[in-house]
Amino acid sequence: MSAVADVAASHASRLTVGAKAALIIALVGALCLALEPVVPWLGAWPKTWVLPMTDWVGTALTWLLGWIKPVARLFSDIMVYPMDWANSALNATPWPMVIGLVTALGWYLGGLSMAALGFFGLGLVLASGYWHEGMNTLALVAVSVPVALVIGGGIGILANEVPRVKGAVQAVLDIMQTVPTFAYLTPLLLLFGFGPVVGLIASAIYAAPPMARNVMLGLERVEAEIKEAAIMSGGSRMQQLFQVEIPSASRQIMVGFNQCLMAALSMVIIAAVIGGFNDIGWEVLLTMRKAQFGPSLLAGMVIVIFAVVIDRMSAVLATERKRYDLRVVWAVLAFAVAFTVLSWSSLPGASEVAMLDGVADSMDRGLTRFTQANGMALEALKNNTLFYILLPLRIGLDQAVLPFTWGFIWTPAMSAMVFGLGGALGLLLAWRGNVTGGIVVLIAFGMIETGVTNLPWPFVLTGAAALGYVAGGRRLAILVVVLLCTILFSGLWDRALLSLYLCGASVFACAVVGGAIGVASAIWTPVWRVVRPICDMLQTIPLFVFLIPVLMLFQIGEFSAFLAICAYAIVPMIRYTRHGLVDTPEEMMEAAISSGATEWQILRDVRAPYAAPTILLGLNQTILYAFSMLVIAALIGTTGLGQSIYLALGQADVGLGISAGAAMAILALIADRLVQGFAEERRKALGL
């Protein structure tokens, strides 16, 4: 017996940390499955154990908001004036003057190509018939961005000047960027009331964190020699900061300005939900609700045009120092003024120019014909994906396999076969030396049979803790368990698992498809030439616009939400995969080539391992993108935390909105920390 024990101990000692963690997860899962018929609370958290945390949060916030409301309403009344001024200025200015001004600015920043972008971009906005709505949107951005710049810049400077608060500031910024925007719209409604100003404030809150982060980063990167020279010159601290350090960090700060602009613009449709403002976001919502997909897509493209023009011009302002001939700028402005004056009597109003109304109607008719001609194929694609992939992943094979979908009913014997197949594949992998992979395969088969939403809570907690321990040690494991327990005790566990299921399915699809596209883009340059502009376009499209094409083809439902999330979240996976593979050091490539390795061997054994940390960071961004889109997708048929947040907004339920938003932020934060931990571990293994 002692000899057998010694052998078992020696085998256990040879197991890696990952293998031990996977083994613990598998044992806990098996124990839960075995004991669930006897101890039912292992499968579902008893309702009697739920704490009224949502009510507590709602009561506390209602009391706090009651104290702040007078000041908030005063601020709201003040902000009405710049909003009205900006609206009046942009709508009263003749459209040739606005187009000329943007064209001249484009020339000054980027030459002929940027001037052409501004001219044709604004020309398309004019032709769309949404000129006045577009100007109202720009007015919202023009007022919200300075507010965000002041708030974000102040926070960044505070964190730089008071190191003790830097950790707290970073934590607050993490929370602001992970809590879904819909979650904090409810308290904003209670504070500021219904109207355009609350949309403006929501945009400013959402746009402030990128500015704060870039100010912090820029000030951190100011070289020590520059700081020492400022000190030696005898300037006060304020002089050192504003005359030396901030100018030295200007390039990074301008990157923050670019991101701030894009964040504010991406909020225009969400702001329209609570603003009731006659802007382009409201037009998108209105036409979507009426199922007028042609006008809806046309209005969405106006936002895309604004996003592309603002992104390109602000990016050039942030990164390029070269400026073009001012004489051309004055000539363009003079031509715009002369054209406006000479054609004043015959100049059509902006709303009369609408030349693309027929295009929108043709798109609607074409879509109707397309769906009628291909309705069966589209319906088959949707149903096959739902019944054979998404539904089994959600509720498990034992509940998803039914006679009307699969043609037969699931039996306990089939469950035993699934577990047996998983065990056989796991043993095969373990026998070939991959013990961790073998146990993970067994766990995956068990999850497919059970379903993500039916996983026992002890299994989920143990799995998350084990992953946290492998990725970041004991502290991360404890943090993960504590955060998940807050969701468990709040009564939002079932909805959190629903969100986790859809987000996980979308991230997996993005990882497979986006990773493959990234690899192809890294290997073949022509592929990247095609993929790059598509990625650029997808990254500038505001979130709501992703819903329009999927609704056009597949109507409301979980499959449409799945596609919208994938379309938004796939870009980081493509970009980071390609970047990691292309960035392989030349000396490593030369060594592999000189050793006689084939291109496939170089990709598999050299480039892919070196790119692993970068690819993991891309996966991290994909997860965060998917979570941010999850709430928007709740508008077209998803369940879970996103639906709870949206319902809380309609019911003005502050407690539910904040609690569900915090639960989603917790899931995103945990995923972020786990992936970052694995990426850091991989980076250390490569000696980076």
Explained architecture:
It is a multi-pass membrane protein. With 688 residues, the chain is mainly alpha-helical. The protein has 31 helices and no strands. The protein has helices spanning 2-14, 17-35, 53-92, 95-110, 112-128, 131-161, 166-178, 185-192, 196-220, 224-232, 237-248, 250-266, 268-275, 280-289, 293-319, 326-342, 357-395, 397-400, 403-406, 412-431, 435-450, 457-472, 474-490, 493-523, 525-540, 547-554, 558-582, 586-594, 599-633, 641-651, 654-685. The radius of gyration is 28 Å and the shape is globular.
Please provide a brief summary of the model.
This is ABC transporter permease subunit. This protein has helices at residues 2-14, 17-35, 53-92, 95-110, 112-128, 131-161, 166-178, 185-192, 196-220, 224-232, 237-248, 250-266, 268-275, 280-289, 293-319, 326-342, 357-395, 397-400, 403-406, 412-431, 435-450, 457-472, 474-490, 493-523, 525-540, 547-554, 558-582, 586-594, 599-633, 641-651, 654-685.
